[in-house]
Design a protein that fits this description.
The protein is an alpha/beta fold. It contains 14 helices and 11 strands. The strands form 2 sheets. Strands 4, 5, 6, 7, 8, 9, 10 and 11 form an 8-stranded mixed sheet that branches.
């Protein structure tokens, strides 16, 4: 998608970007969403100064924002006039500049620290993880909806990203030829292996892996499930893009997570990075990953007569043949370039 820019708006946007710290912020936000606290840690500047820079960039239309409880996340949006202008500006920048490289390294450290907190929590609660999921509406209702939405298959390869206890591999045990669960946490993997072995599911395996960089070939998976994992990630959109990469044409991606809520305690007690997701947000990420969203489903607490629980949303998308073809062409081109 290409945009033209009104002269007045273009000048205002370029003025907003024409400051060293603000250019550094644009580079960081082009790689993923960050909040003010993240940026103060990465850039080593005060909160008021960072907030001022963000305000100017937002007013100029170069960045977008959304609020989750007491946190506000900022990002460079794909498919928008401001987002395209930012990417054009960054295309002309020297990305080997010492300050930009250092910022990228610090951003990686900040994200690793946040996700390490989640991993520490997992290690302490591996055997209790199924009970923690009971924070939301009845698990039986959620699982029934998951089974209905993903369909009967059979799936040549079903991949469960953030497999945790391996429950999804159990749930779909009669619907896939091969099942693969991916998780970063060794304690969770050990627990999942024990459960799957006890269930006699020899066709299912679990493997240590990074959801942002899967050791799975392009187009290999016919079904992918992400069950209550996105809210632990610092960059959910990136994980969805990576899931799309490994999906076959006609493959399905099913995401289960909380609808937006305001339970701040989940950040402190359960290491949640995000307080739920709206359907618009998830579907935008799906489309950006060249997936075709299907009909979403919401399971609210009122449906099972319980109070004080969280609403669960289920989203599904399909990989179109055109997206797979484009991916294959890009992969072939990279191989050709490496050979040359």
């Amino acid at each position: 998608m290409s945009f033209t820019f009104d002269a007045r708006d273009l000048v205002a946007a370029l003025k907003a970007a024409a400051e060293p710290t603000r250019l550094r912020i644009l580079k960081l936000l082009s790689a993923g969403e960050l909040n003010v606290k993240d940026l103060t840690l990465i850039l080593g500047q005060s909160q008021p100064r960072i907030s001022r820079h963000l305000k100017l960039l937002h007013e100029a239309g170069l960045i977008d924002r959304f609020r989750e409880g007491s946190w506000v996340f900022f990002y460079v949006a794909d498919g928008t006039r401001g987002g395209e202008l930012v990417r054009r500006i960054l295309d002309t920048a020297d990305l080997t500049d010492t300050a930009l490289v250092r910022d990228e390294e610090r951003a990686a450290v900040v994200k690793r620290e946040r996700e390490r907190a989640a991993q520490t929590f997992f290690e302490a609660h591996a055997a209790d993880w199924d009970r923690i999921r009971a924070l939301h509406v009845a698990e039986a209702d959620v699982e029934a909806a998951i089974v209905e939405m993903l369909g009967s298959g059979p799936f040549d390869l079903l991949v469960d990203l953030g497999t945790g206890t391996g429950r999804i591999l159990e749930l779909f045990g009669d619907r896939y030829v091969h099942g693969l669960g991916i998780d970063l946490n060794q304690s969770m993997l050990a627990y999942a292996r024990s459960k799957l072995s006890h269930a006699g599911l020899e066709k299912a395996q679990v493997r240590h892996g990074d959801l942002y960089n899967l050791s799975i070939e392009d187009g290999a998976a016919t079904a992918i499930v992400m069950h209550q994992v996105l809210h632990f990630l610092s960059d959910p959109a990136r994980a969805i893009r990576e899931a799309s990469r490994v999906m076959a044409a006609g493959g399905k991606l099913l995401i289960v997570d909380f609808a937006p809520h305001t339970l701040e305690e989940l950040r402190e007690r359960f290491a949640h990075e995000r307080l739920g997701f709206s359907t618009q947000q998830i579907e935008d990420w799906m489309r950006a990953a060249r997936l075709i969203p299907g009909t979403a489903r919401t399971l609210s607490p009122s449906a099972d007569g319980t109070d004080g629980k969280l609403t669960v949303s289920i989203w599904i998308a399909e990989k179109g043949a055109a997206a797979t073809s484009n991916r294959a062409q890009a992969t072939a081109q990279r191989k050709l370039e490496r050979a040359e």
